[in-house]
User: Which sequence fits this backbone?
């Protein structure tokens, strides 16, 4: 197994302290704080380990504080409800005695029912596209030193954008994006694990889409996830190609909103995602009187 993937799986393999209490560590993805997708994936792992025979179908999370890369994260699970068909869990991720994330998740037994979906939009196959890691390597010398570790970082997922971003000379474009992605190696047929990994990777590319109509690079911005929601519609394999189709219908009040649909290669809609995040321009911070500093 690829070491980057084995490291990620180790990250999600939380230590059980008590029946409803778990502890996890963090990996550096080249950012000054813990990657939001990591905390989200770990919180879902913690919730899933208190549920038997049911799969997560939705989660809703709020990011409350920046995570400390050098401190463990404790996940406390509240077993809110165990019903006949649905199970509800609430998770609080804690560092230094304070919550950094809260998440509610709902699990359901497998049931037959009505079935329809929106069709997958047209997109070139991933084999015709370049890997984002190769694209980033070409501009490494042109980005600020403080963010080069982010561009250098080797990730356990492969990303192939349909229209690669231009971080050096951004231009205004529509607030839409398509990105193929998959894990670097094969995994067992473990549906709860695949859904936790999808939660992890769903935090990539989403908020950045809200910057596209403004022709500004994330290198010039302060950006952070505020909340995140996922609906798991059907079984998913993150070790096979998935198409992330993202759009941003709105940005206002120093916040951007992004939403995404995730399709398997055969066109099956497997999940939907929504996120709101903080977007501030460093050069346009204002004083309380409203004047630019």
Assistant:
């Amino acid at each position: 197994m690829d070491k980057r993937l084995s490291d990620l799986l180790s990250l999600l393999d939380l230590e059980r302290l008590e029946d409803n209490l778990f502890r996890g560590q963090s990996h550096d993805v080249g950012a000054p704080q813990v990657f939001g997708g990591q905390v989200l994936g770990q919180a879902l792992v913690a919730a899933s380990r208190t549920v038997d025979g049911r799969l997560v179908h939705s989660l809703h999370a709020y990011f409350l504080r920046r995570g400390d890369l050098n401190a463990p994260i404790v996940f406390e699970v509240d077993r809110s409800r165990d019903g006949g068909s649905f199970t509800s869990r609430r998770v609080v991720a804690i560092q230094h005695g304070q919550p950094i994330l809260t998440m509610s998740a709902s699990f359901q037994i497998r049931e037959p029912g009505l079935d329809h979906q929106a069709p997958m939009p047209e997109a070139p196959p991933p084999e015709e596209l370049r890997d984002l890691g190769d694209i980033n390597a070409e501009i490494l010398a042109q980005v600020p030193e403080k963010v080069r570790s982010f561009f250098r970082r080797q990730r356990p997922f492969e990303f192939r954008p349909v229209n690669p971003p231009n971080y050096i000379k951004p231009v205004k474009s529509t607030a839409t994006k398509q990105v193929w992605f998959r894990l670097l190696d094969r995994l067992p047929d473990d549906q709860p694990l695949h859904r936790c990994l999808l939660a992890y990777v769903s935090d990539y590319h989403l908020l950045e889409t809200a910057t596209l109509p403004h022709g500004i690079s994330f290198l010039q911005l302060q950006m952070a996830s505020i909340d995140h929601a996922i609906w798991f519609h059907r079984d998913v394999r993150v070790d096979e190609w998935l198409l992330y189709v993202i759009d941003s219908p709105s940005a206002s009040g120093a916040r951007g909103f992004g939403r995404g649909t995730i399709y398997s290669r055969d066109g099956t809609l497997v999940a939907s995602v929504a996120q709101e995040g903080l977007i501030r321009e460093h050069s346009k911070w204002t004083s309380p009187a409203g004047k630019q500093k």
Summary: Residues 3-109+130-284 form a domain with the Porin fold (CATH 2.40.160.210).
